[in-house]
Each structure stands twice: as structure tokens, then as C-alpha cells.
Amino acid sequence: MHKLKSFILESYDEMKNKVSWPKYSQLQNQSILVLIASLIFALFIGLIDYVFQEGMDFFYKEF
């Protein structure tokens, strides 16, 4: 039980005093960047899926 209490206290101290947390404005900017990158990636994958589906439909109609 002592080890668990020591672990929790040390973890709390590390999170409070040793971890460098980003500023709120940095967090907002990085979140927006991740959202935009995710949207671009999703659109790209969707485009590839659409092109592949159309290609397969064309192929199956021919044979």
C-alpha cells in the first residue's frame, strides 16, 4: 500500500511541477491544425475510394 501511495504522490508532483503544459493559444492552434489535416486526409481517402469504386464498376460492366 505504501508503494501505491508513493507512486500517486510522485506522479502528481511530476505532472504539476515537471511537465511543461502548452499555453491555451498553442493548444487551440495545434487542435485546428489537427482538424484541418484530418479533414484533408479524409477527403483524399474518400477520393481514392470513389475513383477505385468507379473503376471497379466500369470493369464489371465491361465483362
Account of the protein in words:
The mean pLDDT is 95. It contains two helices and no strands. It has 63 residues and is mainly alpha-helical. It is elongated and about 75 Å long.
Task: Write a short abstract of this structure.
The chain has helices at residues 2-18, 24-62. With 63 residues, it is mainly alpha-helical.
List keywords for this structure.
63 residues, mainly alpha, 89% helix
Helices, by number, come to: 2
Helix-strand makeup class: mainly alpha
Percent in strands = under 5%
Largest sheet: none
- Tell me the radius of gyration: 25 Å
- Global outline: elongated
Which helices and strands appear, and what pairs or packs with what?
Layout: H1 2-18, H2 24-62
